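Tutorial, part two.
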Amino acid sequence: MARYTGPKSKIARKFGEAIFGPDKVLSKKNYAPGQHGNSRRRKVSEYAVQLREKQKAKYTYGVLEKQFRNLFERAASVKGNTGEFLLKFLECRLDNVVYRLGIAPTRAAARQLVSHRHIVVNGQVVNIPSYSVVPGEIIGVREKSKSLEVIDNSLAGFNHGKYPWLEWDDNTKSGKFLYVPERADIPENIKEQLIVELYSK
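Running the prediction step on this input gives:
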């Protein structure tokens, strides 16, 4: 399966949430897309609810099925709450950290910046969006890329204080990953326990 590149508003309407950020279409049409999107909905099964939650998490973080499954298996191998560890691992992905730091306006844009070698970790170029960032690492913009308009526009007015596990230095255009966030710190509206139940079937 290839990465989804279609209309994001359509996916946001499917879940009834602005999972890709503010969405004008969703605010006008807050119901599922399609011919019967605004009609009465049939009762959905428990499996459908669980699958929907997994799909929402995958679309939110821009992760494909195989990558998502691997992250789940990694989370399941750790002692503790599997669902919480799954979200923590997703938060530690380099593309997500670049997005959280405000270097890119969306996770898709962050993934592109990483892939195109505009991002450095501890001074070294890393072009793997799924790279797992660990506490203490410095994530920044490559020297040659600091004048990119997309980065300047994204950083303009960004509130760097809203994620306490990240520390930003405006002078160097870099941020430090202080610690892995706890579930209560992660703002995404994802019911991770439903995903655990789905994979446990």
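Residues 46-61 form the longest helix (16 residues). In part three we will examine how such features are distributed along the chain.
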